[in-house]
Every structure is written in C-alpha cells, then in structure tokens.
Write a structure and sequence with these properties.
Layout: H1 6-9, H2 13-26, E1 34-35, H3 36-43, H4 50-60, E2 67-68, H5 70-84, H6 111-119, H7 132-143, H8 147-150, H9 159-177, H10 180-183, H11 190-194, E3 198-203, H12 209-217, E4 235-240, E5 245-248, H13 249-253, H14 267-271, E6 274-279, E7 288-291, H15 299-304, H16 309-319, E8 322-327, H17 336-343, E9 352-356, H18 364-381, E10 390-392, H19 402-459, H20 466-475, H21 477-488, H22 498-505, H23 518-538
Parallel strand pairs: 3-7, 3-8, 4-6, 8-9, 9-10
Antiparallel strand pairs: 1-2, 4-7, 5-6
Helix pairs in contact: 2-5, 4-5, 9-19, 9-23, 19-21
Organism: Nicotiana tabacum (Common tobacco)
Protein name: EH domain-containing protein 1 isoform X2
Length: 544
Amino acid sequence: MEFDTSPINRCSKEHEKIYQQWFSLADSDGDGRLTGGDAIKFFALSNLPRQELKQVWAIADSKRQGFLGFREFITSMQLVSLAQAGHPVTGDLLNAEVNFENLQPPTLEGLDVLQAKKRTPKSEPEQNGNPTAQSSVTANWFSSSTSVKKVSLTSVTSIIDGLKKLYIQKLKPLEVAYRFNDFVSPFLTNSDFDAKPMVMLLGQYSTGKTTFIKHLLRTSYPGAHIGPEPTTDRFVVVMNGPDERSIPGNTIAVQADMPFSGLTTFGTAFLSKFECSQMPHPLLEHITFVDTPGVLSGEKQRTQRSYDFTGVTSWFASKCDLILLLFDPHKLDISDEFKRVIASLRGHDDKIRVVLNKADQVDTQQLMRVYGALMWSLGKVLNTPEVSRVYIGSFNDKPINEAATGPVGKELFEKEQDDLLTDLKNIPKKACDRRINEFVKRARAAKIHSYIISHLKKEMPAMIGKAKMQQKLIDNLEDQFVKVQKEHHLPPGDFPNVEHFREVLSGYNIDKFEKLKPKLIQSVDDMLGYDIPELLKNFRNPYD
C-alpha cells in the first residue's frame, strides 16, 4: 500500500540541498511553512500559467492543510519542472514513469535577484522546513491564559492552528462554564489537534483484526498476538516511532505530545489494558491504527470487564477518522456487548465501514447467504435507513483460496480490497476536513449542553425544596430535553444520551450550575458563522 511519501525519497541529495535553499528563500517568516501568499510570489518565477500553478498547489497540498512543508515544497518544484518540460499537471504525474532522482530543478527567472535581496537584510533562520518552532508557539496558547487574547487570526499559518486558536478563545470558555468536560468529552489539548488520523478496528474475537493491521503493514508489530482464541486482551495503538517498542498505558496517557490524556478518566483498570506499539513504518507516518480486544458474547463477559468497554470504544470513535467493523462468515451473530458497542458509535455513522473478512472460507453460494444474513443482522442494530457499505474479502497474507471461491470470487475480492485500500489511502487527504467537521460538531454539542445545564439551573427554586426539585428534574430529564429543544428550536437528534446524562448529573448539585450566558453563546455562534468560514477562505488554494 503505497502512500504519497515518494518525492523526498526520490530526490537526490544534491537537489535536496538546492530545494532547501529555495525553501528558505520562499518562506518569508522562516517558520517552516510556505503559505499561499509566499507560494504565489515564488511560483511566479516559473512563468507557468496560473491554471497549471493552481494544479501544482492542489497536488502538493493534498492534505489540504493550507500550507506546504519542505516535503510538499519538493513535490511542487518537481511538478513545476515536469510542467515546464511539457507534461500536463495531473495527480497521476507523481506515479508516472519519471526518473525523479535525476529530474532537474525547474528554471526560475529572477531567482538570483531574490537571493541577493535575501542575503543583505539578515541571516537566515535556522529551522528550515522544521515546523517545531510553530508547534511550540501553539503549545503555549494551551498553557498560558494571557497570550491568547493578543493573538489574532492573521498570525495563523495553517487551518489546524486557526482551529486551536478559535478553541482557546471562543469555545473553551463555554465548555468550562458548563462543565462540558465532565458530561461529554474532556477538554482538547494541543496534541488532539496535531494527532495523525486514526483507524479503529472492532469486531468479535478471531475475526482477523490484528491480522488485518499486519497485512497492511506487511510485517508484525510489537505486542501483536494472533490465535483462534480471544488473544488481543487490550487496546493497542499502533503508531509511528523511532524504534520498535511497546509503551504501557499509564505512561502514554500522561505524555503531553500524545492525544490520549482523555483516557485517564477510565481509571487504572483500563490503562493497564492499554498500550502503545511504536515502530518506524512509512504507512504509520500517515495513519495510526487502534486494535481492540475482541468483543465477546454472553452476559458473563460484561461483568468481568473491569472498565467501561463501551465508554472507551465511544471515546476512540470520536477521535477516529474511520471505524472498521469486522465480521467473518462463521461469526455473524451480534452479541449483546457488540450491540452496545455499535450503539455507542451513534453520531459517527459516516465513519463506519463493515468488512466481511475471511470470505474465501466459503463457496460462492454460501457467501451469498452469509452476505444476506450479515445485512439482516446489521439492519437490526444500525438504526439508519441507508445501507452500510460492506467490503468482502480475505485480508491476510495468504493467497485467496480459489478452490472455494472460484475465479469470479477471486476477481471480486481483489476489487473489494482495492476499494477498501483506496478508502484508507484517502484518510490523510481528508484528515484536515475531518478535523473541521469534528470541531464544528463539538461546538454544536457544547452549545446544546450549555442550554440544558442553564435550563436545569433556571428550574431550581430560589430557597426551599431544592433537593426535591433536583430529584424531580433528574427523573423527568426527557421532558426537560423536550422543553429545551422547543425553546431554542434545536434538532432532537443532536441531544446527548438521556441515560448517560442522568448518570453524570446525579453526582452534581444543579443549584451550583451557571445561568445562561448569552455572551458566551454569541461568541460560539460568531465562530461558526464567521471565523471558521473566514479561516477556510484564507487557506484554500491561493490560485482560486
């Protein structure tokens, strides 16, 4: 499974040095990020038509971050060089049969003048192509409360930085005021914004979740156990790292540069069943995988789990970009626990993909019946009118069993496998859009939460009978939700789960809650209506 890591690997050291100098020239503020304005000035030296340069930017910034790092800059220069040689600029050009090693840098008119100008005023900043300087600045926003006020959106150099700033300035005050972190989701940290896209695999034991990850990586990873019995007994996050090692859950949850601090709320019982498996791998530079314990059947299993399994899967679901539900032809029944897990994915339907794995273990006729039975089972659990996309295949390193499937089955499996791999390949490209989507979703949830909390506070008596009223409100929480919904004209589907809300609420004194603060709500409305669209406008393709 090849990802677009190619250009920097396919560039000779000599050319890389040249591009490094050019990158420093083009990057006017020396922060390791080439934004639209700088790119327009520098790309203009190539004398290519605007339409071609628009394509160059679109292909180089495939992740839609709104800036080019050093890697992406090399890609853009190689594309400019090919365009000058008469090649049409398309997305397939990077995969074309071109000798990138010996591809000459493009001709840039007036480059020497620019170099002379650059030399005179001041010495070059050191961290060329290195975004660490930028991220340390954004990390300070999360720790210090004063600097935030002074930062304006004009000083932001990427969409993600803009979201960080909007979160600190506009959304977090609302979350703090109404204890959103206790009821819905922990406060976001710097690492939550910077984390790589995640893919979570869920399924009953022995449906091939760990094998699926090994198949994509084409190698095993530290701590991988495979067998017909329930082998993976813990949540394992497989991510990129400098060397091969396993890090225990308690350690990983307190590391500031990891997006897992929110898991501490599930307690030590969970953290002892959580670990991070690190290894250097080109695929893991783009995607992080989450391997989960097999969902077991039988009511006995629920009482034996020492932590809130559905709570943890729900937490990961909100952070993940794709959720794969794995089934195999011999395990189509959906157990009670699996039912609860799938129910906890409510609100993330767009991320769910269903995989019917090990499909070469049955012949074509049986496969047809198995597929029908799977759709029937899912229809009772996934309460959506749409049909889920089901990928059929055998995702392991063994050749497809043609004796069972026949030639038609082999062709079908290969097509399905390509479709799923394409879905996975597109994750990094859609990661930035997904972040924005999740951020807007969170802002809406925080608004509804604040309406509910302030409504409950308003219902409390001024002096006598507070305890009685509190109990009455908690018992009739559904009715209170309906009142809030009608008062503020909100969609009922956006409201939180009543049972979970009631459970958390019973541990609080409603009288201590805040009244409605229209200023905070207005601030979030402004952010949704003006700031985010403005941010996206600033970081779209500069040639648009």
